[in-house]
UniProtKB/TrEMBL annotation:
Role: Plays an important role in the de novo pathway of purine nucleotide biosynthesis.
Enzyme active site: 103 (proton acceptor), 131 (proton donor), 230
Cofactor(s) annotated in UniProt: Mg(2+)
Annotated catalysed reactions: IMP + L-aspartate + GTP = N(6)-(1,2-dicarboxyethyl)-AMP + GDP + phosphate + 2 H(+)
Lineage, top ranks: Eukaryota, Sar, Stramenopiles, Ochrophyta, Bacillariophyta
GO biological process, one term: 'de novo' AMP biosynthetic process
Binding site for Mg(2+): 103, 130
Enzyme class: ligase
Name the record gives this protein: Adenylosuccinate synthetase
Domain of life: Eukaryota
Record-listed GTP binding positions: 102-108, 130-132, 395, 421-423, 503-505
Similarity field: Belongs to the adenylosuccinate synthetase family.
Keyword Kinase attached: no
């Protein structure tokens, strides 16, 4: 069990942690030297801080819980937390991020958590992201909208860091209406968010085709070219539609630039301008300064949830470049893509599939062949229904990769992990975990930037026994088969972050929540 205790807003953190593994346990305390008697005493002087006595009582309760998990004591175990403990308490911005190569199942957790939040936001990427949620047998696919739209009380924000293809976005809104979901007055788009045009998508396809067998595996949704326009400072933003004369002039210049840069590219400028003029009033109704809105919601004590798109290993800076997306799907994008300060962040939840998948090209150290029926690779692909939400492409599959997860954790600082699709491993005689990388006979201590190195590492595996029991109806950790529990505890031990949520099936409520005691942000 892991618990983080806050002495006060004036004092440093004290971390109490324990890692559970089969037959082993550990408790450690790490106190900042600045956490002195003088600082602790300051708690009493601040009416908004916890008293020293209250702090000690809190620590005592958390230590009692640790003792239970390690086999002693009589405190309350994490499985006894009420089901309502699905969201953080108090003021702060919580974030759900992809910890691998995408398609981990972030949207499902966001959908569950968003029922307890006032604001849900997207901060980076565009319609290249895809989240599928099944509610009462109805499948919803979101590409630009936050999955929190299914909470009819939540505001949904598309932040300034997102690039928006308005035709696709408006189609998503229309599909909501078709399913009886009202969004009026609940969806807002940043006036600073950049626009993706149809010719950006055409350019995306042309650039990919030029690469031949060295393709990057782009979704061809125009995301890269749109971000290029943004960086080249000739792009247009959603708010520009509020001044149509300005929009028209800038659009003509941008279209001309692209036709000159890509011979053979044809853009029907007049047709496009007529379309944007026709939708301008509708877009203006949902266009707002989301930076001011989000920060005001925070000051008003509203609970804010950020839904990350893509994943850490597709980050333009930290991923397997150039086989990456064109934005930063890591935690930093929350600051730059929403316009909030780091002091306002709280829970950072890394979503991890119980195995690995990847769409498109690029190194994939733990990849398995998907060729023979009955093999592990084919099992993961078929049982996991591993096809992309956005592209429909078959995903590459492999074993869980611990060096990659440690790297992702180091960058993002996850306070808890959402482990998804553990049910897909059911039926395998053995399950493996990629535990370490070796290159030319030497262990690697970090994720290499060189694709040549990463593409030729030798993965050291740890093999655990599998299980055959159906786990889809399990709602507590203790109900899971023993071998499934061992797998989860071993993963938790290796990455050093508590696993709070465990996905046991495809439906909305097929999730075990181990409670706030398994969340360092609490």
């Amino acid at each position: 069990m892991f618990s983080r205790v806050f002495a006060s807003k004036h004092a440093s953190r004290a971390l109490l942690g324990a890692t559970g593994a089969v037959g082993a346990g550990m408790v450690y305390t790490n106190l900042n030297p600045q956490f002195t008697e003088r600082n602790v005493a300051a708690c009493d002087a601040d009416p908004n801080s916890q008293t020293v006595l209250g702090l000690l009582q809190n620590i005592s309760q958390k230590v009692s819980n640790i003792e239970v998990l390690l086999g002693g004591g009589s405190g309350t175990t994490s499985s006894n937390f009420p089901s309502s403990a699905v969201a953080g308490s108090g003021k702060g911005i919580d974030i759900v991020l992809g910890a691998q190569w995408g398609d981990e199942g972030k949207g499902k957790l966001v959908d569950i958590l968003s029922q307890e939040y006032d604001v849900c936001a997207r901060v980076a990427g565009g319609s290249n992201a895809g989240h599928t949620i099944v509610v009462d047998g109805v499948k919803y696919k979101f590409h630009l909208l936050p999955s929190g739209i299914l909470n009819d009380k939540a505001l949904c924000i598309v932040g300034n860091g997102v690039v928006v293809h308005l035709p696709s976005f408006l189609n998503e809104l229309d599909s909501l209406g078709g399913n009886g979901i009202s969004y009026n007055g609940r969806v807002f788009v940043s006036d600073r968010a950049h626009l993706v045009f149809d010719f950006h998508q055409a350019v995306d396809g042309k650039q990919e085709d030029r690469l031949g067998r060295h393709k990057l595996g782009t979704t061809k949704k125009g995301i890269g070219p749109a971000y290029s326009s943004k960086i080249q400072r000739n792009g247009l933003r959603v708010g520009d539609l509020q001044d149509y004369d300005y929009f028209e002039r800038r659009f003509r210049e941008l279209a001309d630039h692209h036709m000159r840069s890509y011979p053979g590219l044809e853009i029907n400028v007049e047709e496009q301008l007529a379309y944007y003029k026709s939708i301008a009033p509708r877009v203006q109704e949902i266009t707002i300064d989301t930076i001011a809105l989000c920060n005001q919601q925070f000051e008003d004590g509203k609970k804010i949830l950020v839904e990350g798109a893509n994943a850490a290993m597709l980050d333009i800076d930290f991923g397997t470049y150039p086989f990456v997306t064109s934005s930063n799907p890591s935690v930093g994008s929350v600051l730059t893509g929403l316009g909030v300060s780091p002091r306002k962040l709280r829970g950072i939840y890394g979503t991890v599939k119980a195995y690995c998948t990847r769409v498109g090209q690029g190194p994939f150290p733990t990849e398995l062949p998907i060729t023979t029926k009955g093999d592990a690779g084919m099992h993961l692909s078929q049982v996991g229904a591993e096809y992309g939400t956005t592209t429909g492409r078959a995903r590459r599959c492999g074993w869980l990769d611990i060096p990659q997860l440690k790297y992702s954790t180091m960058i993002n600082g996850y306070t808890a992990v959402n482990l998804t699709k553990i049910d897909v491993l059911t039926g395998l005689e053995q399950v493996k975990i990629g535990k370490a990388y070796r290159y030319k006979g030497k262990y690697l201590s970090s994720m290499p930037a060189s694709l040549e190195v990463l593409g030729n590492v030798e993965v050291e595996y740890e093999t655990l026994p599998g299980w055959t029991e159906d786990i889809s109806q399990c709602r507590t950790f203790e109900e899971l088969p023993l071998n499934c529990q061992r797998y989860i505890l071993r993963v938790q031990e290796l990455i050093g972050v508590p696993i709070r949520w465990i996905g046991v099936g495809p439906n909305r409520l097929d999730v075990i929540d181990r409670g706030v005691g398994w969340d360092l942000s609490e």
